[in-house]
Amino acid sequence: MAKKSKKQQSGGTPATVALTAAGVSYTVHAYDHDPAHPSYGEEAAEAMGVSPDRVFKTLVADVDGTLTVAVVPVAGQLDLKALAAAVGGKRAAMADPALAERTTGYVRGGISPLGQRKRLPTVLDASAAAHATICVSAGRRGLEVELAPEDLQKLTEAVLAPVGR
Q: What does residue 4 show for φ and ψ, rounded to 5 degrees?
């Protein structure tokens, strides 16, 4: 079993540990998660008082047999055809939630594009570039990180493409 760093022991997540290790500037936003809320992303936007077009959800899809991460605004939906095209694939479907959780090391509603157990191909919706900062899951429900989209793109080696609608 791997030892946890002091940061992880003191409440950090693999996402915040990865950001700190990379020397990236970020802000953590914590809020009380309501399990009855119908949308994790919309709940985050409401709780933080941030426009839903600046809060991005992390979705895991299967593109031609390869798990692929899509990071799209919570205000919209993932365009699976556009995701497949962005990574040179033919077909995309949402991944099995249990497989997504096992592969990323995060629970549904708290999957972060950062610090995943296994690095997956990632596509960041092109709309992110219109904002100075965006918010993504910090690795658990009720915890978000705000960072520059360029930093997220660099750290995840994401392709920037219009995959939201």
A: -90, 140
Integer CA distances (angstroms), 158 to 7, 16, 20, 31, in order:
26, 18, 19, 27
Rounded to whole angstroms, how far apart are CA atoms 155 and 68? Answer: 15
Neighbours of 109 (CB within 10 A): 20
Distance, in Å, from the CA atom of 58 to the CA atom of 77, rounded to the nearest integer, reads 11
Number of helical (H) and strand (E) elements in the chain, helices listed first? 6, 8
Q: In what side-by-side order are the strands of the sheet with 143-147? A: 27-30, 143-147, 134-140
Helix (H, G, I), strand (E, B) or coil at 70: strand
Q: Is the dihedral of CA 76, 77, 78, 82 positive or negative?
A: negative
- Tens of pLDDT, residue by residue over 44-82, are 888 888 888 999 999 999 999 999 999 999 989 999 999
| Mean pLDDT over the full length of the chain | 89
User: Average pLDDT in the 99-105 region?
Assistant: 95
By CB neighbour count within 10 A (0-12 exposed, 13-18 middle, 19+ buried), where does 36 fall? Answer: exposed
Query: Which pLDDT score is estimated for 37?
Result: 75
At residue 147, the 3 state secondary structure works out as strand
pTM of this structure: 0.89
What is the token pair recorded at 158? 């994401």
